[in-house]
Design a protein that fits this description.
mainly alpha; 67% helix; single chain; 329 residues
């Protein structure tokens, strides 16, 4: 419907359902009908000046929105699978659960697809485990085998339900490895499309932004910076512009807005956090905020807000990042 209306040159405004619900309380009567809702939406669109117009997205931006959403789902599935694996493993073989960081150790996951119990690890031995892992191209096979055998030597008690729990652990380890493969393939598709976007090189020139964060920024903003009248408007949407919570004689009480684009805020926050470690200008600003008494999270948010001004101007003028310009901004 949106595509058909935009193709017919109709101007569309986005009105959140919550806004319509709140506005309906100010109209006469308690009736609830589709006709009344339509009249309220039309009336709100006529009176309000702060509604965001809908614009057609270009092909690359739409594809990036689909792919970044898919990647977020896969990463969440991977986190859940690792948490389930560790919870299952700690019930019958806690020493092996403590031995490795399964979120960053592929060799440990490979080990779990073949060996999950203390008896099996002791019976196989370190030498045969190294050979078995080597055939499957696992890195650091010696260290993983030694750690697994050491964990097996620390436990000689057989817990009830061990065999079924071990089978579940093997399946979960395989699931995590499959998710890693799918995440890698999705990231390859994201990079291929993002680098073809007209803003890609400008975004990548700014410290802290890589391919994934840059693609998420494009997907969240629609790839068209002209949709935002100013950097302040963009900052308000991504939750980086505090709003006043004044009452009576109390003034200057600034708080985080309740409604904002959470994925866009996450993108700007992670980029600022990375820049604070790698970019001298960003680090200087971050240190100044810490010296003012702000804690780490507040300092990173302040840096993200400052960097958003720079990025908005870069995209508006189609100019890559320059350290001297960013420092003076």
């Amino acid at each position: 419907m949106i595509t058909l209306l935009l193709a017919a040159a109709q101007r569309l405004l986005y009105i959140p359902g919550r806004s319509v619900h709140d506005a309906s309380a100010g109209y006469r009567g308690d009736a609830n009908s589709a006709a009344k809702d339509a009249a309220i939406m039309a009336d709100q669109a006529r009176m309000r000046r702060d509604l965001q117009p809908l614009r057609p997205g270009d092909e690359i931006t739409v594809e990036l929105r689909i792919l970044t959403a898919r990647r977020a789902d896969l990463v969440a599935d991977r986190t859940r699978a690792i948490n389930r694996l560790r919870a299952q493993l700690v019930e019958y073989f806690p020493a092996l659960e403590r031995a490795f960081d399964y979120s960053n150790n592929k060799a440990a996951l490979i080990l779990l697809t073949g060996y999950q119990t203390p008896e099996a690890l002791r019976r196989t031995g370190a030498a045969r485990l190294v050979a078995w892992l080597g055939k499957r191209k696992a890195r650091n096979a010696d260290a993983v085998a030694a750690g697994a055998v050491e964990a097996a030597q620390a436990q000689h008690t057989v817990v009830p339900g061990q065999d079924l729990a071990a089978a579940m652990v093997a399946r979960l380890a395989g699931q995590v490895m499959n998710l890693d493969t799918e995440i890698g393939a999705t990231e390859t598709m994201i990079e291929e499309r993002f680098r073809r976007h007209r803003h890609a090189e400008i975004i990548l020139s700014m410290p802290g932004f890589g391919v994934i964060l840059g693609a998420e920024f494009v997907a969240a903003t629609g790839g068209d910076i002209s949709a935002f009248d100013s950097a302040d408007r963009l900052a308000g949407i991504c939750g980086l512009a505090p709003v006043p919570r004044d009452s009576g004689r109390i003034s200057g009480n600034l708080k985080r807005p309740r409604r904002y684009h959470r994925r866009l805020l996450r993108t700007c926050y992670l980029a600022a956090q990375s820049a604070a470690r790698t970019d001298p200008a960003s680090r200087t600003y971050y240190d100044r905020k810490r010296a003012e008494g702000k804690h780490h999270r507040q300092a990173v948010l302040a840096l993200a807000r400052r960097r958003l001004n720079v990025l908005w101007a870069m995209l508006r003028d189609h100019t890559p990042y320059e350290t001297s310009t960013a420092t003076a901004a």
